[in-house]
Amino acid sequence: MTSGNRSEAVDVKKSYEVRTYGCQMNVHDSERLSGLLEDAGYVPAPAGSDGDADVVVFNTCAVRENADNKLYGNLGRLALMKTKRPGMQIAVGGCLAQKDRDTIVQRAPWVDVVFGTHNIGKLPVLLERARVQEEAQIEIAESLEAFPSTLPTRRESAYAAWVSISVGCNNTCTFCIVPALRGKEKDRRTGDILAEIEALVAEGVSEITLLGQNVNAYGSDIGDREAFSKLLRACGTIEGLERVRFTSPHPRDFTDDVIAAMAETPNVMPQLHMPMQSGSDTVLKAMRRSYRQERFLGIIEKVRAAMPDAAISTDIIVGFPGETEEDFDQTLHAVREARFANAFTFQYSKRPGTPAADMEGQIPKEVVQERYMRLSALQEEISWEENKKQVGRVIEVMVAEGEGRKDGATHRLSGRAPDNRLVHFTKPAQDVRPGDVVTVEITYAAPHHLLAEGAPLGVRLTRSGDAWEKRNREAAPKPAGVMLGLPGIGAPVPLPAAAAPGCGSV
What is the protein's quaternary organization (predicted)? Predict the structure, then answer.
């Protein structure tokens, strides 16, 4: 955690809990919120505290139609707890706070602080002001005050980290409310990004994920169209940085120099998550997506020509207003042609404040559901076929923490391949830690994971494993930290198929 001037307002060690909803950017912001609170003297509440903390922070998402209902339901459950816990404070931040502002305190007057996406660094000050003045503090900045990555942090992983390279988005997709809540794109200076990565590597991190709402548009704010490919190549010069990923790019900005940088930079992983959203040119036009099916599939073809083993994933929205059966058939066609390793499919739901919410031709729920099931079945079949191609391959797996829910029963460990596929493998005779690297041979494929059932072929202990061991040794006497939903390693764990696409994926 970055050092800073510790607030003297917190006289005793008060506990905090952060609850995170939504996309990768929110997870990244929540790491910073936790870091800010710890820098101000708070300590994490024990795992499973379920609101039994001195400060509970909701980092909200606004991309789903029922996001507000979920928030107010959770706030309602804390209202009684607050009456029984003198001095307890509740704060609401994130996209829904940026959108609803005064409405939150009107509907839930027991909330102490409301802050937006642009001023998360103010949280400790606002909590103290609310305590002293004994009234709710609402502060919503209209423009970014500080990049999230410049704030104190409490990372849940010792070996993998997010690095924000830009915030905001200049696109106007009709299904997305992000530009209204996160603002126009603003890029960080390249030197600041690389300095942060080097500092993370010095702490033991071996994998970083470059993060932005439209990550490969990086450079538009500073007037350099090749800035993103240059950044990828620069990451390749950082000693000790083993894996570089990024999320989420937009097809409009996916240029040949980016493909070349990915293929020619050894530590940039052969993995690409690029949202397609629809395979229909008509629907893409209605979505205001500035590409068509031919352009999208052309990018996929170029990526595979440069990196034959690349695993490519996507996001697809089913049932966008006006989508006909012919439009949907075009999506199925594009999926067959692209042969995604996996696709995160979403049933369209109205996002309040977006143009699509008021469009004619809203599709009946039962039609959307039927199309969704057909698409899911097709992608499941393709995912399984693509995973079967991995059988017999020898790959390096970075050991993860918490990725395999059945590892204890199966006596296996889990981790991520370079292409980000999830691999469950037999425990080696030698002890390994999260962040260490194990060489295995894939023996079996399922649609969503791979198995390496034989004895591992090799073990490489790493500085990241050392960092994990050191962190856990130092933290042993302390209560467990609040889990923010950060995946154990690398690119974010995919959202469930029924969830809404995050703002980092549009």
Answer: Monomer.
